[in-house]
Amino acid sequence: GGAMSFLKRFPPPAEGVRHQQPDTEAVLAGRTLGAGTLYIAESRLSWLENSGVGFSLDYPTISLHAVSRDLNAYPWEHLYVMVNAKFEEEETKEAPMAEGEEEDSDDDVEPIAEFRFVPSDKSALEAMFSAMCECQALHPDPEDEDSDNDYEGEEYDVEAHELEQGDIPTFYTYEEGLSHLTAEGQATLERLEGMLAQSVSSQYNMAGVRTEDSIREFEDGMEVDIAPAVAGQFEDAEVDH
């Protein structure tokens, strides 16, 4: 009849139960499934009606869980659980003609089911929520696997933030770096390079004083590049010699 098709008969979980809440009403999409026991186990979240049928939710499919105390939204305080999965009633399945179309349109929109678990003992809600958090943490989202290291994620955020501030990233090549310099910076760099070139020349000059051969080699190979003033120093060096 009107029974929910996904309700199955299975034994209550025996291992890794972080929290067990008896006398808890389960509500799917605003329709009650009856009263039962909610098992918040490490492997999955299960709810079993007192008659022994129920359902289980895998943590990776649970996109949100929260304690809802807003009595305007729902008249009883409860644990709200949003699931990325489809839970259909038998009645809605009677449309075989348009099945193909339906499936296509469903692919675009992620299926979402909203469960509410309403314990008769409202003071248990915090413990239920904490147990959910602990169990969720044991099942990291496979999509986030690359960055399941929190610190790594923060590091990226910092970098992104710095880039937004207009800072030049520190990992460009030397040439790219030059193109980022201001005209003034460029001039300073050229001046520094000039001074460096001069000090290199004078080192050659000092070394070249030793023997005539090294001076000749240096002049033959490098004459074009030597500024007249520096070339003059070499002529002096030869005369000294």
From TrEMBL:
Function as written in the Swiss-Prot or TrEMBL entry: Involved in both the assembly of spliceosomal snRNPs and the methylation of Sm proteins. Chaperone that regulates the assembly of spliceosomal U1, U2, U4 and U5 small nuclear ribonucleoproteins (snRNPs), the building blocks of the spliceosome, and thereby plays an important role in the splicing of cellular pre-mRNAs. Most spliceosomal snRNPs contain a common set of Sm proteins SNRPB, SNRPD1, SNRPD2, SNRPD3, SNRPE, SNRPF and SNRPG that assemble in a heptameric protein ring on the Sm site of the small nuclear RNA to form the core snRNP (Sm core).
Keyword Cytoplasm, does the record have it? yes
What stretches pass through the bilayer?
none
Please verify whether the record's keywords include Cytoplasm.
yes
The alphabetical list of record keywords is:
Cytoplasm, Cytoskeleton, mRNA processing, mRNA splicing, Nucleus
What is the protein name given in its UniProt record? Methylosome subunit pICln
Q: Name one GO cellular component term.
A: methylosome
Per the record, the GO terms for biological process are: cell volume homeostasis; chloride transport; mRNA cis splicing, via spliceosome; spliceosomal snRNP assembly
Question: Which family is this protein grouped under?
Answer: Belongs to the pICln (TC 1.A.47) family.
**Pfam families with a match to the protein in the record:** Voldacs (PF03517)
